[in-house]
Amino acid sequence: METRLIKDCAGFASLEPVWDRLVAESVANACHSTFEWLFTWWQHFGADRRLLLLVAYEHGMAVGLAPVYADACADGFRNLHFIGQGLSDYADFIAPRDRPDVAEALISALLGLRSSWDGMDLEEIPAQSPNKALLDLAIGAGGVPAVWQATVRCPYLPIEGSWGAFYATMGKGFRHEVRNKLNRWNNLNRGRGDWLELRYVDRREVDSVFVDEVVALSDKRWLADGHRSPFLNHPDQEFLREVLPLMGRRNQLRVGELRSGNALLAFMLAYHWQGVVYAWNTQYDPVYAEYSLGRIALVSLAEQSFREGCHELDFMRGEEPYKFQWTTLCRTNLALRTERTAQPAGEPEMPRGRGAFQAAQGERST
User: What CATH code is assigned to 2-153+332-361?
Assistant: First the structure.
């Protein structure tokens, strides 16, 4: 086995034919490890950073990837990060589940590049990742003073059985509220014309017109109650304008909309990868807050996921209360940080859920 270092965008792009196959076979099998997500992120945010993308080869074929880069602080201290950090909910070394030797080769090669970086800030590694133990051994042997810190919990719901059977477990109170909100809307607008009817739209692809609608809805919500959104942050918005249509064309996107006539009143934006639906961003028109349109959109998206035959609904990072109405199951994400970049003991992590990007990233996701 050998490893090669990719240092430029052209080399990164050349890996597209094999990248997603490697992801699907790896411990990093998640929507934010795909080529579409990470390469687009690098095109938008990589200009002032040093690409240190490592590829493991065996018999001339790529078998693993270490998607990392280094950037420098104001004082010149260079931190090592995963590509996509800040906007990605999960990150890891892309190595086969049953081949720890591939991950070992990638980590060893990364330590061999110590002249290119000074410290680690590798965020959102799932706690159950087998690469955690390999990193522990490697940093110990390499003399890198790094510590693990919990960043956030990620609720998830296994999809089993029929939608009807599952929805019955949500409780009468939950189901009654959804039905009551819909009835209130219909009673208010009955007889006023079809253009006021509330309807659910299952969207698999998006365009610039849709993103414009999302930006307008997010801005309306921010003006009403200060709710933050990545669609209101200019660099993040430009990234999303490019990556969402791309993922849609490759069947990696699911969007549940609630519309009245042509007006977008609420949406749930999710990614789709290997049978998992990842609920990533939601928004609703604050004028209609009393109708719980965000909840109705999520119910409809969840029902669609059951009927499509998906095996999991992942609510991704963040512990918003509404997620725990659906599940009690959580995964924990970790960060591996050197002493210089580690969070002080007892100090909570910065917010990482949707709508907290600007607060967490100083108005710009890294």
Answer: 3.40.630.30
